[in-house]
TrEMBL record:
Keyword Metal-binding found: yes
Keyword Metal-binding among UniProt keywords: yes
Protein name: Fumarylacetoacetase
Gene3D superfamilies from the UniProt entry: Fumarylacetoacetase-like, C-terminal domain
Amino acid sequence: MQYVISPPPVPTLPVAGSDQQFPVRRIYCIGRNYAEHAIEMGHDPNKEPPFFFQKNPDNIELSGEFPYPPKSSDVHFEIELVVALKSGGANIPVDQAMNHVFGYAVGLDMTRRDLQGEAKKLGRPWEIGKAFERSAPCGPLVPADRVGPLTQGAVTLEVNGELRQKGDINQMIWKIPEMISYLSDYFTLAPGDLIMSGTPAGVGAVKKGDRMRGVVEGVGDITVTVV
């Protein structure tokens, strides 16, 4: 096949302990999936069904550096467990959802909070605040069979050695199987899809020179410097 322009490279995540790469198709992100974070953002977690937005696959950043983005003066960190799918489909039952999981990673949903806030006030989509270049720093994928059942585990983020976020996977309002099942009612999921599973309370701003270290117990850690 001949293309009129060169096709872009396929975004990938490395697989821990191997030389293999996981090709990324889509990135789904669930909003306000920890009650305390929903409250700190001014929402009642008991009144909302799950909702999702997307980042672009090429927003993934593996270098360990996060360039402070333009057009913003209020960029926030959000530490998250990332779920990678090896298969998919539509209308996946909750009790079958975990069969589709390839593995897990530690990721950051970096957010231009000021631009997101303006979009919210105007009733506009969030992409300008969420889906900008290099806004998804991520660590390597750990296959699910090495992790075991992931129903609990601390989720933390330090900035310059100071603990800023602390939660637990068991505090997620919508658990991993429920997220997969719910998404599959609205989208046909497929191999290569990632789900960023939400962030605990404590999100905040960063500045150039800050060093972030995020940990998901049982999965791994990620260290990213703001440049």
